[in-house]
Amino acid sequence: MTRTVVISGGGTGIGLAAARAFAADGDRVVLLGRREPVLARAAEGIPGAAHHAGDLSRPGDVRRVAAAIGQEYGAVDVLVLGAGGNGALEPPVAHLDALAAAAHEWTTTFRLNVLTAVLLTEALRDHLATPGGRVLFLGSIAAYRGSGTAPGYGAAKAALHPYAFRLARELGPRGITVNVVAPGLVEETGFFGGEPFPAERLRERIAETATGRIGRPGDVAQALHWLASPAAGHITAQVIQVNGGAEHGH
Coiled-coil ranges per the record (predicted)? Predict the structure, then answer.
């Protein structure tokens, strides 16, 4: 049976890899994000894919996108909350003192990673397939270890955990599972705003893994795909680490 899979942040990186994995299995994918040209290019490469552009941290945009999805598809079988980031793609703000800069960074990372996920989930929760629906949040190893580049990022990703756990309790009676997938460093995502990852730090990150490499978008996409399958129907309220063992360090 063809499922409807809604993926926020579906235009690039992990979200796009997930869209391709679901589409390859015959599912219908709907890509969401802020950048219309990016979404359009991504959708062109995926048979049957649709896309809707909007700022998912704005209630009005989320309301519009959710209404369009509900009207066109009815039930949402899989909801992947992949929109987020560390703020590297945000417009720079000049002339901030240290306190104002901290407030801006933390507000931005929570808006990008928490508000986008919460608003879209709340807008679509009544449309989730019952039973069998799947809600999948994209977390991060930074929720456990912090982030050296953006301290607020790790805290924002950690904030998804209690929300996901509560949601799992609320939606469990409807036969819906809710989980978080937490990647480590992943290549080819645009996470750092197009800047190359420093070579020395890359060697350090690789050394922290048990697999001797950093992650690829497909590693995370396949974990998401499996958690959305019937085989994972009794797995809920979990944080699944996809980082080659890097959360344990050396």
Answer: none
